[in-house]
Amino acid sequence: MKVLCKKIFNSTTGEDMGSEDGWRKVGKEYTVLSMSYVKHEGIYISFQTENHGDPSLFHLRGFEFVSDYIPSSWVTGVEEFEGSTYVSMLPESWKYSSFFDDVENEEPHAMKLFKEEAEKIYREEEEYCLAQAGKNA
Asked: How far is it, in rounded angstroms, from Cα 18 to Cα 62?
């Protein structure tokens, strides 16, 4: 699954942040590594950012889907976090409560899982896009 950054909004104020904010660039496509839906808030996606190798979470506002491929390793679940219920779609090996904190803290096991799954997602996305291009040729 890929998204195209069409506009960058401040997550708190909603103001237009211009064409670049250090994490994303308008006009650039990003491969989605995980996605979640939070009632009354909407859809959030995570991808590797411009200046950081770690995945970061962004509201879908300002992005447009350009590929609808769902990675083979994604599983869905209903979770609770800080009093909110959300639906998650992410690699099964990432589905434990401290995973993203562990990646941020560069915990070796989490980093290994992140790299393995991210590489698989990128590879599958590329194969899907090539197959789609072949169908449209």
From this structure: 11
